[in-house]
C-alpha cells in the first residue's frame, strides 16, 4: 500500500497565524489610476492587490503591533495577471534580512519564504531590488513557534 503525503516542508508557514492581517501598511508609491494601495496586502482578500509605480527599489512595509519573533512570510501573488513582476524580492524583519525570492512568480502563486533563522522585530519590509513594479495580493507574517521563542 502506498500512502501519498501532500504535506510540504512549508505547511507550518502556509497554515500559520497571520500577525499582519488588518494592520496599517505603507508603500513607496502607488499608481493612482488604480486603487492598489498598501492596505490591500493585508486585507485577507486575494482580489485586492498592492502595486507600486515602476520605481527603483519599490518597497512595502508594515509595523506589527509589538516586537515578534518571525519565522517567515507567505506571499500570495496576484491572480489576474503580471505574476512575473514578483521577482528579486527581499524581506527584512527588524532591519535584518529574512529571506529572498529571485522569481519570477506566476499568477496566483503561493510563495512561502522562511527566514534563514527566526528574527525578532516589529517592522517587516518587502523590497523589489532594482527597477520594477512591486505587486502582490497578500502577505502573511508568521510568528516563530514556542521552541524558537525560548532561544531568544
Ligand atoms: Ca489583498
From TrEMBL:
Q: Which Pfam families match?
A: F5_F8_type_C_2 (PF22633)
Q: Name one GO molecular function term.
A: fucose binding
Keywords of the record: Calcium, Disulfide bond, Lectin, Metal-binding
Return one Gene Ontology term, BP aspect.
regulation of complement activation, lectin pathway
Superkingdom of origin: Eukaryota
* Protein's name in the database: Fucolectin tachylectin-4 pentraxin-1 domain-containing protein
- Which segments cross the bilayer? none
Instruction: Report the family membership.
Output: Belongs to the fucolectin family.
SUPFAM superfamilies xrefs = Galactose-binding domain-like (SSF49785)
Q: What does this protein do?
A: Acts as a defensive agent. Recognizes blood group fucosylated oligosaccharides including A, B, H and Lewis B-type antigens. Does not recognize Lewis A antigen and has low affinity for monovalent haptens.
Q: What are the residue boundaries of the Fucolectin tachylectin-4 pentraxin-1 domain, all occurrences included?
A: 16-145
- Describe, as the record does, how this protein assembles with itself and its partners: Homotrimer.
